[in-house]
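Customer ticket, subject: "Can you confirm the structure for Putative ABC transport system ATP-binding protein?"

Message body: Hello, I'm evaluating your service for our small team and ran a test protein. I'd like someone to confirm that this is what the system normally returns, since I don't have a reference to compare against.
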Amino acid sequence: MLKLINISKTFNKGNINEQVLFKDFSLDINKGDFISLIGSNGAGKSTLLNIISGKVKADEGNIFLNGVDITAKDEFERCRNISRIFQDPSMGTNPSMTIYENLAMANNKGKKFGLKFLIDKKDEEFFRDSLRVLGLNLEGKLHSPVSQLSGGQRQSLALIMSTIGNPDLLLLDEHTAALDPKTSEIVMDITDKVVREKGVTTIMVTHNIEYAIKYGNRLIMLHLGKKVLDISGDMKKNLTKEELLSLFKNISDKSLFA
Ligand SMILES: Nc1ncnc2c1ncn2[C@@H]1O[C@H](COP(=O)(O)OP(=O)(O)OP(=O)(O)O)[C@@H](O)[C@H]1O
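Agent reply: Thanks for trying us out. I re-ran your input and got the following:
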C-alpha cells in the first residue's frame, strides 16, 4: 500500500555540512502492517516519516500510496490520507478547545467547510463511542477543555483524532517518549487496541526496544539511512530482547536504548 522507490536525500547539499542520508532507499509496506521502526540517533527514522508525510521532500525517487504517485504532493495534500502523532502531547491536540471541538476539527480535516463547532447530537454520539475504546472515561468529559487532561490522556485523544477519518497510514513518532513509564505502557496498549480496531497501516518510531518487540507484526531497523533489519511473522514473534540488543550492538551503541 506504501511504496518508496529509490529515495535519495542529502542535507546541506554543496556545503561543508553536506550529509547524504538516504541513497536509493526502497521500502514496501503492506496494507495492515504495524511496523516498529528502530535505530540509533541520527539513523534517519524521523526523516523517513518526514519524507512519507511530505514535510521533507526527497531529492530523488518516488512514493506511491495505494498505487497513486504522491511524490509531488505537499504535506497538506497528503494529510487526509496520512495522520501523524509526535512525541509532544501539546502538538496533537488544542488545549484551548474542548474534547468535542478537537474531535470535530479532526473529523472535518481536509473537508471543504472547515470547523463546525455547533453541537451535533449525532457527532456527539459518534465521538463518545470512539472515545469509549480508550477506557479512560473521556466520553464523560466531552465538553471539558483539553487543557485539563494529562499528557497520557492527550496522546490517547490524539490517537482517536488521528484515526477518526480512517486514514490510510498512521505515523507515530516516538509518541510515548515524553510520558512516564506507567502512562507510556497504558498509551501503548491503547495504541495497539486502536490500530487493531481500525486496521490502520502504522509505522511507529520508538527507542523502546521492548515495545518494538511486543507491538506490531514487523520490525525494521535503520542505521545511517540504510535498512539493516526487516523481520516479520514468526521471526518477529520469537525475537528476544537479548537477540535484538546483540544485533543492535553489532552496528551501533547499545547504550542509546532505554
Ligand atoms: N532539516 C535538516 N537539516 C539538516 N540535517 C538534518 C535535517 N533533518 C535531519 N537531519 C540530519 O539527518 C540525520 C538523521 O536525522 P533524523 O532526525 O531523521 O534521525 P533519527 O533516526 O530520527 O534520530 P533520533 O533518534 O535522534 O530522533 C541526522 O544526522 C540529522 O542531523
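A couple of notes from the result: The chain has a mean pLDDT of 91. The first helix runs from residue 45 to 53. Feel free to reply with more questions.
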